[in-house]
Design a protein that fits this description.
Largest sheet: 7 strands, mixed
Oligomer: single chain
Strand content: 35-45%
Strand order of the largest sheet: 2-7-8-5-4-3-6
Radius of gyration: 31 Å
Shape: elongated
Distance between the termini: 81 Å
Helix content: under 10%
Number of helices: 3
Amino acid sequence: MRLRTRIIVLALVVVAAGLLAQAAFGARHQGLLAAPQSAPGLQRIPQIVGGQPAQPGDWPYAVYLEIYDGTELVGACGASLIGQRWVLTAAHCVLDEDGNALAEPHFFVLVGFNDLSKAVPSDYLVPDYYYTGAFDPAVNGSNDWALLRLPSIVDQPSIRIANASDATLAAPGRSAVIVGWGTTSEGGDVISELLREASIPILPDQTCSNAYGSDFVKRVMLCAGFLPGGIDTCQGDSGGPLFSNDGFGLPLEIGIVSFGVGCARPDTPGVYTRVSGVSPDIVATLKSDSVAPVAAPTTTAGTVTSQTAGQALIGLTVAANGLATTVVVEYGGTRDLGSFAAGYAPETGDQQVELSLTKLVPAKKYFYRVTVENGAGAASGPLRSFTVSGKDSKPPLVKASASSGRTGSTVRLYYTIYDTVSERTKERILVYRAGGSSIAVINTSFSRSQKGVRYWATWRAKVGAGSYRFCVVGSDTAGNQSPPSCAPLRLR
């Protein structure tokens, strides 16, 4: 078993050496235990990522990390920006190959770059603190995560980390994305200058248990990749993020590149630290930091700040409290909601956020609720409502259905009716002889109408057997009237 980590990055030694002259690293280092004994592990090859680099700006939270022991470059890893001052990577990235603290640790991180060749020494940041948690190779190498604190707030988007409630978002069969600057072949010694990406499926835990035995601990690890091989993370990708969709169309970090056998080999898919399994420990560490502590987000309930044709802006105040925080406004024409608008909140102080609710119907009443969430927790506002400006000009949708009954008895005349704006409609139903003359008129009062529900009106059929027809005209509370919908009526 090999870690997907260290590689001596010959192509970047000159750039990185210039960084060492910039600032001394003054780190506090606690909780250090041994790392799995290993050298370079899994590499990328062109087929691993399909030969397609990530587009600039697609993954602004991807971080490149260089590791020095004194003045010697000993490795490179991936990482992710998870808050305004926090970087998440793998624990084995920031330890020596025996799992001990580096003698003179120096870490340099590059945030917001897709192409490493465009970076200059002044672009690199020097963390002022790092922490490796309870990483212990004697216990299957579990808890493979580490935190680095940046010296100041960075003006760059960060990624929300999964918490315990997000465990189902890493379920087998779901699609995920891997990104990194790892080597382009197994055993290679030069990393890719361009950030690369690939989509891989989450696999059942049993798949990695079969491949790695007791080295795979499902509580804090997850399995992802293709059993035939060909697509995988590799050497130099360790510590990088595994992303998935959070259910609202936003990326969520569900895994940290940890270990595997070879690169993209058959039957040995990649193993990732399961972020939802270790996030309680990550968050506890972040909360207790005295310099840049984090907390669960807070939010106001939100108000409608403006409306235009078919849309409304919901404005709210969010405090992200140091971690990447998602903002979701769920809304709909009933209290069941059903639609949503989502985005990220700025992470510094109380910030104003606006989200646009779209495809709204004029004069219709809508309900909405705001939820904010980061790795430390979530908060929701109360259920609120508003009525879209404008006039209701759309008539109800009515469709009569063929009906039948026995003459001399009460007959049900079936139809469906639904209004896109109002929940309340009334109907006028006329029954006709075959020759066209009206023999009955039935008027209903305003009542709730629902899409997909079949209604009926009752009529005492005191006529002879034969073929008749009936027509339904619907009206809404704004006075709009539907064209008549007619259907046959058979009496026997």
